[in-house]
Amino acid sequence: MSEPLGIDAYLERVRQGLERIGPQQAFEAAADGALLVDIRYQALRERDGLIPGALVVERNELEWRLDPQGSHRLPQAVGHDLRIVVICNEGYASSLAALSLHQLGLRRATDLVGGFQAWKSAGLPVTR
């Protein structure tokens, strides 16, 4: 049996398979039809605000809501070619979530480097 990998090494491995994007790229992707998906938990959304137009799907429901073949999918889950940008608070959990979406066949899923905090720091729109 191999040695345990550890979360830092695992996260690095996961990110090698993603084309992660920055805040401005995410903003432009949304303008081009990408689905921004905010997976932060409610307390963070209440504290820091929301990205206008982002779909809020808490992390524990993500795969069920975005799987185009799933019985609990959201109307936005229209197909496997959908461009999805997953956003967490600081860009860690979103990488793991994007990998999970890849495993469901959503190969255009990625995440936002730095998460919501990077979006906010870039001066991009946030609503309370």
TrEMBL record:
Signal peptide: none annotated. One of its GO terms (molecular function) is thiosulfate-cyanide sulfurtransferase activity. It holds the Pfam family Rhodanese. InterPro entries: Rhodanese-like_dom, Rhodanese-like_dom_sf. SUPFAM superfamilies: Rhodanese/Cell cycle control phosphatase. Keywords: Transferase. Residues 30-128 form the Rhodanese domain. This is Sulfurtransferase.
